[in-house]
Each structure stands twice: as C-alpha cells, then as structure tokens.
C-alpha cells in the first residue's frame, strides 16, 4: 500500500485526485455516485475537471490568499 500525493492547483486536479482515489478503492463511478446519492454523470463531470464559475472563484481566492491545497490517498496498486 502506497500513499499517493498531489498538489491541487485547478479544478482538474481535484477531479484527477478523486478519480485516482476512487480507482484505488475499486469503485466504479456508478457505485460512488449511488453511495453519495448523486448521478454518475455528476461524478464524471467532477472527475473530468469540468470547471464551474464557483470552482474558478474558489481557486482565484486560494491564489489571492496564498493558500495551497494538497491531497493524499492510499493506493493498493501502486508500486
């Protein structure tokens, strides 16, 4: 089991982290969506980094205030 880490600089980075963590847990988009009470399409859009005005504004605020985000997840398949 390996810890994976990534700096988050844009909405697409969040999507990639969610996708990689989901895959590491062996979950399909459909299974994740059902467990959260949302559609598979919504999960797909988030994972693809589809930007929204709110996400862009959040990242503008983070940059303006010097806040940096990072993510960490466990990956059983990583070597």
Largest sheet: 2 strands, antiparallel
DSSP helical segment count: 4
For the record, give the distance between the C-alpha atoms at the N and C termini, rounded to a whole number: 8 Å
Overall spatial form: flat
Number of strands: 2
Oligomerization category of the chains in this entry: single chain
Q: Spans of 5+ residues with little confidence (pLDDT < 50)? A: none
**Strand residue content:** 15-25%
Gyration radius, rounded:
14 Å
Q: Round the mean pLDDT to the nearest integer and report it.
A: 88
How are strands sequenced across the largest beta sheet?
Answer: 1-2
The structural class is alpha+beta
H/E order of the elements? EHHHHE
Give your account of this protein's structure.
- Helix content is about 55%, strand content about 20%.
- It contains four helices and two strands, in the order E-H-H-H-H-E.
- The protein has helices at about 10-25, 30-35, 40-45, 55-65, and strands spanning about 1-10, 70-75.
- A two-stranded antiparallel ribbon has the order 1-2.
- Helix 2 (about 30-35) packs across helix 3 (about 40-45).
